[in-house]
Design brief:
Bound molecules: adenosine-5'-diphosphate, magnesium ion
Shape: globular
Strand content: 15-25%
Largest sheet: 6 strands, mixed
Radius of gyration: 19 Å
Order of helices and strands: EEEHEEEHEHHHHEHEHEEHHH
Number of helices: 11
Strand order of the largest sheet: 7-8-9-3-10-11
Structural class: alpha/beta
Number of strands: 11
Helix content: 25-40%
């Protein structure tokens, strides 16, 4: 049987004594899943993503984190496997993290650094096949014609697409995206989510994406995990999350008619009204209460 992409058992994470930011998290994400991580600001989404990426060490004493069946953290200690596992993990942040003075192509080639010798990497001597891979990835996300421009000349949406191209070039098996669309206009946000979804479906890359635009989570993900105060309070496929669950999560009441739309947003049946709804928070939102719930996390 295939090992889960992510397997987390009984982890805690505190930055200050007795104030756990993650509190007894158990989580299994199968290879090939696309998971939307939702929850109000401060609920622990970024910390959970950072723990999975190995940027944060879990609290001592208990719990473990495994990626693709290999242990990377055990009871507060990172294992030697973490370095190697990082090559399989592509990370996309809310804040675009390209090096502005380098070309787009070089920024994407950075994704290959873990796979080539340190000496070659130091001198930027990327093999021809890596350059081809990077250009193909840029083609796929629709910005290959900008390959030789400085990254600083790209728009926010293009920079996020570049970050996805970098993860593709890296040949990441798992993509962790922490609010990748939070700083984007609605059209760019939709494009980035569509690209992430297509990579998930075509390349079978596992994707975990935190989102405060919950309609994107419902539209593009298979499964929703809701965090509240460092605990997973809902975990299920998109059809299983109800209006009450979301009210509980965001602490606001939603109007009755929202119920159908929230559920419907996840059913992905063509022609459903929910599919055509605009993005929340764009000023044209037909559903102010749900927009307010999203805005709580802004
Ligand atoms: N490096 C850190 N040091 C201290 N507290 C932190 C740190 N990172 C996050 N926190 C705290 O942990 C809680 C969860 O934060 P975070 O994971 O960023 O939540 P979210 O991404 O859901 O907004 C917040 O209360 C935040 O202030
Ligand atoms: Mg966050």
């Amino acid at each position: 049987m295939q090992a889960p992409a992510v397997a987390i058992e009984g982890i805690n994470k505190s930055f200050k004594a007795n104030q756990p930011v993650l509190n007894g998290i158990d989580l299994n994400v199968k290879q090939g899943e696309m998971v939307g991580l939702i929850g109000a600001s401060g609920s622990g989404k970024s910390t959970l993503i950072r723990v999975i990426a190995g940027f944060e060490t879990i609290d001592k004493g208990q719990g473990n984190v495994r990626l693709f069946g290999k242990e990377c953290q055990v009871a507060g200690r990172r294992t030697g496997a973490i370095r190697e596992l990082r090559h399989d993990v592509g990370i996309i942040f809310q804040q675009f993290n390209l090096i502005g003075r380098l070309t787009l192509l070089l920024n994407v080639l950075v994704g290959r650094l873990g796979r080539i010798s340190r000496l070659r990497g130091t001198f930027g001597l990327f093999p021809q096949e890596d350059r081809i891979k990077a250009l193909q990835a840029l083609e796929r996300v629709g910005i290959v014609d900008m390959a030789y421009q400085r990254a600083s000349t790209l728009s926010g949406g293009q920079q996020q697409r570049a970050a996805i191209a970098r993860a593709l070039t890296q040949e990441a098996k798992l993509i962790l995206a922490d609010e990748p669309i939070a700083s984007l206009d609605p059209a760019s946000a939709e494009r980035v989510m569509t690209i992430l979804r297509s990579i998930n479906q075509q390349d079978k890359v596992t994707v975990i994406v935190s989102l405060h635009q919950i309609d994107h989570a419902f539209k593009h993900c298979d499964r929703i995990i809701a965090l509240k105060d460092g605990k997973i309070i809902h975990d299920g496929n998109v059809e299983q999350i109800t209006k009450e669950d979301l009210e509980d999560l965001y602490g606001v009441a939603l109007a009755d008619e929202d119920n159908h739309e929230i559920r419907g947003a996840g059913t992905k049946k063509p022609g459903k009204k929910a599919e055509k709804r605009p993005v929340y928070g764009n000023g044209r939102d037909p559903n102010p209460q749900l927009a307010a719930a999203s805005a709580l996390d802004a």
